[in-house]
Protein: Creatininase family protein
Amino acid sequence: MRLGDAPWTAVRDALASGAPVAAILPLGAVEAHGPHLPLITDVVISDGMAARTAAMLEGQGVRAFVLPALAYAPAGYASEFAGTISIGAAAGRAVLIDIARSLKEQGFACLAFANSHFDPENVAMLREAAAEVAALGLPVAFPDFTRRALAATLTEEFQSGACHAGQFETSLVLADRPELVDAAGGKVLADNPSSLVTAFAQGATTFAEAGGPDAYFGSPSNASAAEGARSYDIMAAALAETILACLR
Ligand SMILES: [Zn+2]
Structure:
């Protein structure tokens, strides 16, 4: 269930039921994603992951609310592209801690981070925030897909590091919000095999420096809604598993 769409009484009743209730926070960014995907690509992906996770949990009798997504995050690598809105890590962390405090006061049993914005500064911030929230006494479920074991469950392109607005992400947006994809435009984009992971490790500080003058990496032309649906299922299962462990 989406918390923002529910009346407050529905949340009150769920929390009063005595069974543990999880909150899932979709974490995205307002960031350039090639000429064919929307700036809110990561918001769409994280929200799609969160919604599927909540459905999986409800199927197992576990109550989970999907919170309205947090769309603003550190996104410095894309800051040279119009429309990108980057905030500092300190601001991002402060918002997360305050959201967690509010949830804990109300009696939520677990806060889950559904994240698909893999900017290194954002991921580092989320790791710190997760530790801080846990120290407040609210368990955090944060499957970090940039860690080797989880990355290995995702697509070849994702693992290659040449992955931003490419086949992986274009497929995910096609699966849930096809009306936001310039599918014809994506089909004619040449592959960009430059690895972001390698470029970041070598000190690149912008997408252009990393070899992505149009803010995409990978192979948008190979995207499909079917691949996106598969990736969603894998990510949602990982998140559901982490939440169940968090509630145990
Ligand atoms: Zn993205």
